[in-house]
Design goal:
alpha+beta, 8-stranded mixed β-sheet, single chain, binds zinc ion, 25% helix, 601 residues, Immunoglobulin-like, Neutral Protease, domain 2, 14 helices
Length: 601
């Protein structure tokens, strides 16, 4: 998740706007207007997401810089942050050796990161990201201090030693400072310096979108992931630090601090690397999953132990459901963890941050308004789904964050189905349609660390639910979802690549369906007319060539497929009354009786 959470909050705030019914067509027009205005007003942009691996060998091995970014809308800092610059493309991170001392007394940190990389292209300056106000103390390679210059949040180091292609080298960056404090974690991230209700320090990091370089030096590019990583965090003796992967050692230091050395044996997104330091209790359990025993470790605040024991019982049915639909949990070697955090939550890989107060729903609320969302804990379900979609299968560029959020949102529908049946799952996802804004496209701008609309959640989930109807074969659909997890396991992938994979596996060209839902603010509208027993129909508000089949009642109480295009076609109706004509509500489309009123979906 990451963003999941933030946008959910924004969407919740927006629901008030939709309390009075407006016709979908009017809503669409209003949305378009709003979008135009927004376009005019601006390039206001927030900082965004982070990093991955595998396609990396393909994409990065080629060592080619990214396509030209749009510098008229996005400032240079966004390009430095979001594109595969020439100073990034020639080296491929294989290992981060991160050591950070966390000092709650003055909200400062200090430490070093050993960046090991493989040379994959002609060396030049090396771009390493570390955000202000943090300061680099030195950069060292082969025992030699390096010269470097700073350009905002990016540092450029000159490497005097030869960098032959294929060779493995290490640069160590020493740094310190008082990192940006999160103003509204996890959405507006950074360091969280909180206290538990007993007054003890409770520290966490959350940096999706903003970037891991807000607290440690790295190549802060979404597609870049190391193959493995050490996370050694030093905290005051009174606290326990829980990071990603497995705890390898605990060292008491002479200065009343303790170092917790965690190790991640898999590729990991930079923004998933986390500090969680508090007075924790530990619950350990295991789950017999598709790949054997999976360790489950829960780290609630000490005084929340009993509540955690009850609430976290939801983890096993969640894992069972997701392994059924998505395939094996992706990180058996690193285990599964929930760590209580002083913010709502974040999909920190193999150490999901949990801050939903041991309540069902999203902070006690049901986003769908159907009641089904109160049957389970939103953060356990949504953030854990990101272990498959987001952490294992990662979008190459933040512009394609729908790969993370649309699938994580869709997992809520599937989990409801696992627990309460197919009708309940469908009711849940359809219930979230009121949160769709159609304000701007879901796919954002590439190479500038930009994300598209928050519609990547509810509209994205509804798009996937709609595609399931089009595929019209649940076992095949499940095979596609499991196939995605398997084919792109521990890799970065572009949205386009994923779309064509789904089309291929489904045996149908879904490119126009993706184009419609992901790159426009249109909602496919089935225009129809009934004359006697003849139904005339066509698609409007669609991209050229859109021809998605849809189910309607050609006969009473039976749904059958029709294959509308932008041209009028006819079909025979066998209905007792024309007014009983319906379009299957599982499809996220609008139906519009050209002789009557528009019907909302
Ligand atoms: Zn999410």
């Amino acid at each position: 998740m990451r963003k999941t959470v933030p946008l959910v909050a924004a969407a919740l705030a927006a629901t008030a706007l939709f309390t009075t019914p407006i016709t979908p067509l009017a809503a669409q027009q209003a949305a378009k207007q709003a979008e135009k205005q927004a376009e005019k007003q601006a390039p206001a942009r927030a900082t965004k997401p982070a990093a991955k691996r595998a396609a990396k060998d393909a994409a990065k091995g080629a060592a080619k810089p990214a396509a030209k970014p749009d510098t008229t809308r996005f400032p240079r800092a966004d390009t430095l942050r979001g594109s595969n610059t020439a100073e990034r493309a020639w080296w491929d991170v294989t290992f981060y050796d991160l050591h950070v001392k966390v000092n709650p007394a003055d909200s400062s940190i200090s430490g070093w990161n050993g960046i090991t990389y493989r040379v994959v292209g002609t060396a030049r300056e090396m771009q390493i990201d570390l955000q202000v106000p943090l300061e680099v103390d030195s950069m060292v390679q082969d025992g030699q201090a390096l010269r470097y210059r700073r350009d905002g949040n990016a540092f450029f180091a000159t490497l005097p030693a030869p960098q032959p292609v294929g060779q493995s080298k290490t640069v160590t960056v020493y740094y310190h400072g008082r990192p940006r404090v999160a103003t509204r974690a996890p959405w507006d991230g950074g360091f969280v310096w909180a206290h538990d209700s007993a007054g003890h320090s409770w520290i966490a990091t959350a940096c999706e979108g903003l970037g891991a370089s807000v607290w440690w030096p790295n190549k802060d590019l979404q597609r870049e992931e190391p193959d493995s990583q050490r996370v050694a965090i030093t905290v005051p003796d009174s606290l326990i630090n829980v990071s990603n992967g497995r705890l390898r050692s605990t060292t008491r230091n002479p200065d009343s601090t303790t170092t917790y050395e965690w190790f991640v044996q898999n590729p990991i997104n930079n923004y998933d690397v986390a500090v969680n330091a508090a007075r924790y209790e530990h619950i350990s359990d295991s789950y017999q999953g598709e790949e054997g025993p999976l360790t489950l470790d829960y780290w609630p605040l000490a005084y929340n132990l009993a509540r955690a024991q009850t609430q976290f019982a939801q983890v096993k049915p969640m894992l069972a459901c997701f392994e059924h639909w998505f395939g094996p949990y992706p990180w058996y070697r690193d285990g599964y963890k929930l760590v209580e955090a002083p913010h709502l939550g974040m999909e920190h890989q193999s150490a999901v941050a949990y801050g939903n107060h041991y309540e069902n729903g999203y902070l006690g609320r049901d986003l769908s308004g159907t009641g089904w969302g109160l049957k389970w804990d939103f953060i356990i379900v949504h953030e854990s789904a990101h272990e498959w979609f987001g952490n294992s299968v990662t979008a190459e560029d933040p512009a394609d964050m729908w790969i993370h959020e649309s699938f994580a949102n869709y997992s809520e529908n599937l989990y409801t189905e696992c627990q309460n049946g197919k009708a309940a799952g469908a009711a849940y996802v359809m219930g979230t349609r009121k949160l769709i804004r159609n304000d701007k496209p879901i796919v954002g701008h590439f190479n500038v660390n930009d994300e598209g609309s928050g519609d990547m959640y509810y509209k994205g989930g509804n798009m996937l639910h709609t595609i399931r109807q089009v595929v019209n074969d649940d076992e095949k659909w499940r095979g596609i979802l499991r196939g995605i997890s398997k084919t792109f396991r521990h890799q970065v992938v572009s949205g386009k690549r994923l779309e064509s994979y789904i089309s291929q596996q489904a045996g149908m060209d879904l490119s126009k369906v993706f184009e419609e839902y992901l790159t426009t603010t249109l909602v496919p509208t089935l225009e129809y007319r009934i004359r006697g027993t003849t139904l005339s129909y066509r698609w409007s508000h669609v991209v050229p060539g859109f021809a998605m089949p849809v189910k309607v009642t050609l006969a009473d109480s039976t749904m059958s497929f029709i294959h509308p295009t932008e041209k009028w076609q006819t079909a025979k109706l066998d209905l007792k009354s024309p007014s009983s004509f319906r379009v299957d509500e599982n499809f996220y489309v609008i139906s519009h009786d050209m002789d009557g009123a528009a019907t909302s979906r």
